[in-house]
Structures are given as C-alpha cells and as structure tokens.
Design brief:
Layout: H1 4-7, H2 14-21, H3 35-49, E1 58-62, H4 68-75, E2 79-84, H5 87-100, E3 105-108, H6 111-117, E4 122-128, H7 137-147, E5 148-159, H8 163-176, H9 193-202, E6 206-216, E7 221-225, E8 231-237
Helix pairs in contact: 3-4, 6-7, 7-9
C-alpha cells in the first residue's frame, strides 16, 4: 500500500476528507446520512453493467468511500480494487467486506499514485460523486485514462452546475429535506458536461454517453433518465 502522505499530489481538500470520514461509522446504514447514496447505487451499477461485462473484469473504484459501489461491482463478478484518501472510510470498507464476505482490495491511495504504479491495468473505472470534491478534477480524469486498458471504459457521476442542481442538490437535499448533511456540496465545484467532455478529450478518451440520474425521495430510489440538469452519469472509452 502506498501511503497517503507520499502519493497524494495534494489533489484533495483535507476538509472534504474530514467531512466524509466523520460519516464513516454510519456509511452502511441505509437510513443514515448516506441514505441517498444507497438509493443511487443500484442505478449506478446498472448503468455500468449495461456497458461493460463485469464478470472477471479488472475494475477500479476511485473515491470508493465506505465501499457501497465497490461491493456491488464485486458481487457481479468483477475483480475490484477500490481507493480512497479518507483513512476512516477505507477502514469501514474493509470491515464491512469482512462481514459481508465480498472480496475487494481496498487501498488508502491516490489515483495519481496508482496511475504511476499500474498504468493500463483496468478494464473499467468508476469515479462516482467524487470529482466535485477535489481541487483538480481534470487530473483525476487524466490518471484514470492512464490506468485504463485500450478499449477500457471510465464511468463518472457528478452534479451539473445549473440553477436546478443548486435548488435540488443543495437547498432541497441539504436544507429542506435533510437528505444530506449540510455543507456536503459547494455549487462552485459542480461540473458542466461540456467541461467534463473537454477533460476527457484532453486525456485521450472518447465520450460515449451522458445520461441523467434522478433521485426520487418518495420511493427512496433512483433511475437513469435523459435530463442531465442535476445529477448525471457519463461513460467514456479509451480507443
């Protein structure tokens, strides 16, 4: 394992790591602070599974948190490596894996350090709800591109920088419905699909799809939709 201190290239905000690390003990509680993330997970997994064959695929989950998506990918037969820079989250992910019996290799490591060590090793990479929390999201995309095999796919989910996203993801979700802890998101860090597309092109990846991801609190579930003005998913391929 590469230590955080030696490999992070400073592409993180300590305040963000602390914020999510504080939620670690309730990460796997479906009615806890990460309730919405639990609801998003089946839709995110379905989006990935429609576009890559997961059985025996080498898959990397970047910014894995407590391992919700990592375990779901592994249950589909993928050989999953999962990385995060929040030590409390990596610890919780490992503990949950021991309880569930789902095999995932968790590492406290930056994606940039992993790209330097293991280029061209993964069939698919997921980077979900993470890009809006780092200082340099383009560098994350570039590292993911390095890590992909030719023909491999990168899957990203993030929030669009629109008035609708501000109203729903911040005002609605954090302050009105209390679905997320206050301060989870900063509007200035939301990412337009056009910006994401430019970073993908600069990293040598080709954008294949952009779809919306809609959370429906009345049924505590999510589905993939065509509208991309709030949450959205994207898939890009390495030629």
């Amino acid at each position: 394992m590469t230590s955080t201190a030696s490999s992070n290239q400073s592409n993180f905000r300590q305040s963000e790591l602390d914020k999510f690390g504080a939620l670690a003990h309730r990460w796997w509680d479906p009615n806890g602070p990460q309730k919405a993330l639990h609801a998003l997970n089946p839709a995110r997994l379905g989006y990935v599974a429609e576009r890559v064959t997961l059985r025996d695929a080498m898959v990397l989950d970047v910014g894995c948190g407590g391992g919700l998506l990592s375990e779901a990918l592994a249950k589909e037969g993928a050989r999953v490596t999962a990385i995060d820079l929040a030590p409390d989250l990596v610890k919780i992910a490992k503990l949950h894996g021991l309880e569930s019996g789902v095999k995932v290799e968790y590492r406290e490591q930056s994606v940039e350090a992993l790209a330097a060590a293991q280029p061209g090793e993964f069939d698919a990479i997921t980077c979900m709800e993470m890009l809006e929390h780092v200082p340099d999201p383009a560098a994350i995309i570039a590292a993911c591109a390095t890590l992909l095999k030719p023909g491999g796919r990168l899957f990203v989910s993030t929030l669009n920088r629109t008035p609708a996203a501000f109203a729903l993801a911040i005002v609605g979700a954090e302050y009105v419905a209390r679905l997320l802890p206050k301060g989870t998101h900063q509007y200035r860090d939301f990412i337009k699909p056009s910006e994401l597309s430019a970073w993908l092109r600069a990293s040598g990846l080709e954008l294949e799809d952009v779809s919306g991801l809609m959370y429906e609190p009345w049924r505590n579930a999510a589905r993939v939709i065509s509208r991309t003005d709030v949450n959205y998913l994207a898939c890009a391929v390495k030629p």
